[in-house]
Amino acid sequence: xVFSLFSFKYHPSDPLKKSSKGKDTLSAxxxxxxxxxxxxxxxxxxxxxxxxxxxxxxxxxxxxxxxKNLYFAFAVRKKSxxxxxxxxxxxxxxDTIPYALINEIQFYVNKKEREGLxxxxxxxxxxxxxxxxxxxxxxxxxxxxxxxxxxxWKKDSSHILVLVDSVWNCDFAIPFDGKKTSSYGWRExxxxxxxxxxxxxxxxxxxxxxxMVRIARxxxxxxxxxxxxxxxxxxxxxxxxxxxxxKANERVEAGQVIGLGGSSGQxxxxxxxxxxxxxxxxxxxENIISxxxxxxxxxxxxxxxxxxxxxxxxxxxxxxxxxxxxxxYKIANEFGISVKNLxxxxxINRNSVLRVGQKLRIxx
Length: 364
What we know:
This protein is of the alpha+beta class. Helix content is 20%, strand content 24%. Strands 2, 5, 7, 8, 9, 11, 13 and 14 form an 8-stranded antiparallel β-sheet that branches. A 3-stranded antiparallel β-sheet has the order 1-17-18, covered by helices on one side. A 3-stranded antiparallel β-sheet has the order 6-12-10, with no helix packed on it.
């Protein structure tokens, strides 16, 4: 890759403004037209980039290619100078040259010469704590399964969470390959905050994602409970165990055995009660994992704050905006799904009132 070089004085407000005076010199990038992923992605911190990606996900037609390129642009920050040169060269060999992405990378190369690499980079907030996702929680409690107060999440709007990514060494494993016997939601007069999976006593239960064990102790109706906090900010719960295979503060990998199935606590028979929470708030595991196909629905998740909790939306989810005259059967028929599934996806029932402008999730 050949860069055009010329001398100019550096102006913070306009880094590419030429000057015939001054001794400060800087290598300038060559850009390929006015196409940018943003203006510019490498000038954004993680929070502002997440807000941009969030806004892209809210569009009626989600620009998947742009979102993918934004993730890729940030992944470049982990590469050496030689690797970046290889990335740039490879982009020019594609059938369709992504000039916007090339511009962003070259902007980063130019900026890197001035400022050097940041200490931490990527889409997840980071700090120097030994505990996962400490920038989200600012605490680590090995006694109470849910020590988090309302103040922790009351000012949230949305977060982009990477579930599986080789850059972050994130992986996934189904906690137990068994039949689902109970879903998330209202059950027997109270909210059921997870799903139940049938198993036999002594069956091995594994961690869904890499992380650190926060709880490995008996906790009320959960019985013998393991709670793992993951690097992406999620916490997973594994309840009614018969035996522990891990202890608090222990690092675990996806697929590692963390306990043996049982029927401890308030349980009518041996099964695994599995929950996924964010900042102590339960979210529907079936919005993240397809338990029928034993895999993640998507490798990236949008967590959006709603009035009483969070909505979990997999990347690539299709939404429909309610228009005047719409009703559930009409919408379900148009998209080839059942009213039951439509209601389940949106947490509503057949008698729910539809409002013009309201967005309904159609499929993932």
